[in-house]
Amino acid sequence: MTAETSQTLDRGLRVLKLLADTDHGLTVTELSTKLGVNRTVVYRLLATLEQHALVRRDLGGRARVGLGVLRLGRQVHPLVREAALPALRSLAEDIGATAHLTLVDGSEALAVAVVEPTWTDYHVAYRAGFRHPLDRGAAGRAILAARQSPSADPGYTLTHGELEAGASGAAAPLVGVTGVEGSVGVVMLADAVPERVGARVVEAAREVAEALR
What we know:
The chain has helices at about 5-20, 30-35, 40-50, 70-75, 75-95, 140-150, 195-210; strands at about 55, 65, 100-105, 110-115, 130-135, 155-160, 165-175, 180-190. The longest helix has 20 residues, at about 75-95. By secondary structure, the chain is an alpha+beta fold.
């Protein structure tokens, strides 16, 4: 800690990070141990965070991340979209297909940025705000593949006809971006995705990830 930083704010942020890293919540005692502070301090931190809906406590007294964090998270989408647009534009123009950035939103995949190519006679109409289950479509399947093998190179995922009849998709997950779970992909009217597209999508996902770090 330096003279310019707030110890209380630092502890509050550490509480949120600890809770975000667990699926079953943490008790006051567990938080006290992990933070290296007494239980009274933890009670005060949790009470303040609860007032802002950033933390909630279940009937058993375990603290969990609150819904207020989701509201803050929604404001991140415009920032992420802006950072991703250059790589998406390059991908769309290079491949001649609609490029998109998709993020996880609850149990669904949410397209937050879409760029259509300018030189093609036709392409798939794919709009920002489009939602679909994570287990359907290349964008969601790429995210699930990265979840299953977080330490491995997930490569890319190909699908055909899962979201729109006659359309094929290719997507690669964002890797190494703290707090952001998503993928970059393309969708095209074709029976199969050309071989070079997969590697190009992986490259674009890497470019977006670097822009977000």
